[in-house]
Amino acid sequence: MPLPETMFCAQQIKIPPELPDILKQFTKAAIRTQPCDVLQWSAGYFSALSKGDPLPVKDRVEMPVATQKTDTGLTPGLLKVLHKQLSPKGHVSMEELQKKWKHLCLPVEQLRALLQLDSFSEEVEWMKILALGCSALGGSLLSSLKHACEILTTDPEGGPARIPFDTFSFLYTYLASIDGEIPDYEVEAFLSSIKENVVHKEGLVGLADFFTPTKKL
Question: Which pTM value belongs to this model?
Fold first, then answer.
């Protein structure tokens, strides 16, 4: 015996009052972030939303670099998203790092390549991962630090991109140790010169204090 046809009317359908705003915010987030795998990114988005965690959402749409012919995976915008999600914990488990990386649809092979640059255990210091991510974006040590400053700064976009000297010193020293070709005395001399320049700037290092496009280290 066939089932009777179900009838619906406006009075029978109950739409949760918060649903329209949730879907609106989700759609805007997807447009800004432009995930290559919408379903995978959506799983991370709603998982974070349900837990009250920082969402895997870019601040703005990133335009592809004119010279970029293929998708290179990690971008400054995506690395900034990871920083918002993982930096509050200081140290994160490898499992959590891999999960957040996957939710942003980033290549697993790229994460593995970064992790091979140092000897990490099952718990990693986030700032070291950030530094390695910046090194993947930058063509030199100083351009890597430029990316780090732009990600970490609280200055408005297009501003001096200042960060605390202690943070700058940690990132520079760590990346120099990973590079392995910069003598300790050069590292110390460089940081000393930077510190002298920022002594009257509330201890903040900006792009103008160390970076010019033609300067390499």
Answer: 0.86
Q: Are strands 163-164 and 204-205 parallel, antiparallel or unpaired?
A: antiparallel
- Residues with Cβ < 8 Å from 136, sequence gap 6 or more? 74, 110, 113, 114
Closest C-alpha to 33, from 59, 11, 67: 59
> Do 179 and 122 share a domain, yes or no?
no
H helix or E strand, kind and range, residue 92: strand 91-93
Q: Which domain holds residue 166?
A: 138-217
How do beta strands 204-205 and 91-93 pair? unpaired
From 98, 126, 154, the end of a domain falls on: 126
pLDDT-derived band at 156, boundaries 50, 70, 90: very high
Helix, strand, coil abundance in the chain, percent, nearest 5: 55, 5, 40
